[in-house]
Design goal:
about 500 residues; alpha+beta; six-stranded antiparallel beta sheet; 26 strands
Length: about 500
């Protein structure tokens, strides 16, 4: 069994319960998708923290609640890894070093926020890396998501942002650092339950990028643009020779700030091009299923982002740990970043473009919220489908050139049942629904409940001998009673009668 403890946003204890440990706990540190567990009904709310341990107190996962769906006697809680707390928008600022940028923005938005209610009890440790870890491309949008920077820094530079609940001190520990731990796993040994390998396909990866200069509003416009190419030896520069083909290209813009020289701008484009064109270091996915108590791999102790060399059927794969799934006594370890090439990029692009807003943005850890507009007040009622009167407001903004039943959609529309294929559906309510002749004839043959008058030869169940109730006595019951009493009759002579009478 798992012990599930719930804490509010101030890290105060709220409630606890037990959950079946056969359920799946999925911790994906690239997509941060929610997973669900079923528990007894306890006080759990969106944005609260969840601390899951085994019965002996061993940590399983620290999470943030993204949704709660109560049922009759149980409830389904949706959880995301604790880092999903940082799924929040901030105004754009260049990411010249990922470790420094993440730490500074968490400090500003969660510890020092002017809005006191926005603050969270974070304790941040940021360890400088052996080099700078720049990220580009965010300048195309006025805002950027902290969590998307965290995931990109992880997949690009091995920069890990770990988060855990320090319950004794009512705080959240955040550790940002370059992952340097390494390990080697022999995947062909008998202790491995199952191995799956998915390799990234370099075909279709961007191998050409053109970057155009833009300037701040109000300054003379610039026309400078540079095109960078990926070469067969892996180098990236502006030389149009020995290029990787077929060509898959991308275009970007980069603003030349007021204090930036042309040389500075060119140097920045070189960094931007390197990030865009360099093939993924962990462009693969290796999934291992092992027993939880495996002494060789020890899956419970492998750190997030551990650099791993995997030997599979004579081939060596170089990757990092990016996800853990726990299902009873089996651990599923996911290495590599190939699974995010499409889904995560699309998610980040949506988030940055503002086309999808998270209802839990700003630390709630919630999911996206959608709204559907159209015909208002739709309601299903049996036998109450009648003609419908629709106004333009009910239909929303629609082209006036379209028509329904001869009416332009800018007009009020009266639709009959036949217009929508319901001409055979009864239009009356339950109480006013007419009765057919056949049904009425059948009802006429039924006897009343009170003082019925039967005709013909009605029958009824025969009561047991000796019954003395208001139950109907059938002829069979009466005959049985008479037959039973005949055995008790005594035959006497007239002389005996005369003697009795004297």
């Amino acid at each position: 069994m798992y012990r599930v403890e719930i804490f509010d946003q101030a890290m105060n204890y709220v409630s606890a319960c037990f959950a079946d440990d056969a359920q799946t706990i999925s911790l994906d540190y690239l997509a941060f998708d929610p997973f669900q567990i079923t528990t007894q009904i306890v006080d759990a709310k969106k944005g609260y923290f969840c601390h899951i341990t085994t019965e002996d107190g061993t940590l399983v996962a620290d999470c943030i609640i993204s949704d709660v769906k109560p049922e009759k006697t149980l409830q389904e809680i949706s959880l995301r890894p604790l880092q999903a707390l940082f799924d929040a928008e901030v105004f754009y600022s260049p990411v010249s070093d990922a470790i420094t940028w993440i730490a500074a923005n968490l400090q500003a938005e969660y510890i020092e926020a002017a809005d006191v209610l926005q603050r969270r009890p974070l304790s941040i440790t940021a360890t400088p890396g052996s080099r700078l870890f720049p990220l580009t491309g965010y300048n195309l949008n006025p805002t950027m998501n902290i969590l998307s920077v965290i995931t990109n820094a992880f997949a690009t530079w091995d920069v890990v942002t770990e988060a855990s609940l320090d319950l004794a001190n009512k705080r959240i520990l955040v550790n940002i650092h370059e992952q340097t731990e390494e390990q080697t796993i022999e995947c062909d040994l008998e202790n491995i339950i199952e191995t799956e390998v998915t390799l990234g396909d370099s075909y279709g990866s961007t191998n050409k990028i053109t970057i155009k200069k833009t300037v701040p509003e109000g300054t003379p416009s610039g026309t400078l643009q540079l095109t960078y190419y990926l070469h067969a030896d892996g180098s990236i520069d502006t030389n149009d020779t020995d290029r990787v083909v077929p060509v898959f290209w991308d275009v970007e813009v980069l603003e030349q700030e007021e204090d930036m020289t042309d040389a500075d701008w060119i140097a920045k484009t070189a960094t931007m091009a390197k990030e865009a064109l360099t093939p993924g270091t962990y462009d693969n996915e290796v999934v291992l299923r092992v027993w939880a108590d495996d002494k060789i791999i020890n899956p419970k102790s492998i750190a997030l982002g551990t650099i791993t060399t995997l030997h599979i059927k004579g081939v060596e794969y170089f990757s990092i740990l990016t996800g853990v799934q726990i299902e009873g006594v089996v651990y599923t370890l996911t290495f590599g970043a190939v699974r995010t090439e499409l889904t995560k990029k699309l998610s980040i692009e949506k988030r940055n473009s503002g086309s999808s807003k998270s209802s839990g943005s700003g630390g709630g850890g919630g999911g996206s919220e959608s709204q559907v507009t159209g015909v208002k007040g739709a309601e299903e009622t049996l036998y109450r489908i009648g003609d419908v009167n629709l106004t333009p407001a009910d239909l929303g903004a629609v082209p006036t050139t379209r028509t329904v039943n001869g009416h332009a959609l800018s007009e009020n529309i009266s639709l009959t049942k036949s217009d929508v294929g319901l001409s055979n559906v009864d239009n009356t309510s339950d109480s006013a629904k007419p009765i057919s002749n056949a049904t009425q004839s059948a009802l006429d043959l039924k006897a009343n409940i009170a003082s019925p008058t039967f005709t013909g030869t009605p029958s009824a169940p025969t009561a047991n001998a000796g019954t003395n109730t208001t139950q109907i006595a059938t002829t069979a019951f009466v005959k049985t009673a008479i037959d039973n009493n005949e055995a008790n009759w005594v035959a006497i002579t007239n002389a005996e009668i005369d003697a009795i009478c004297v």
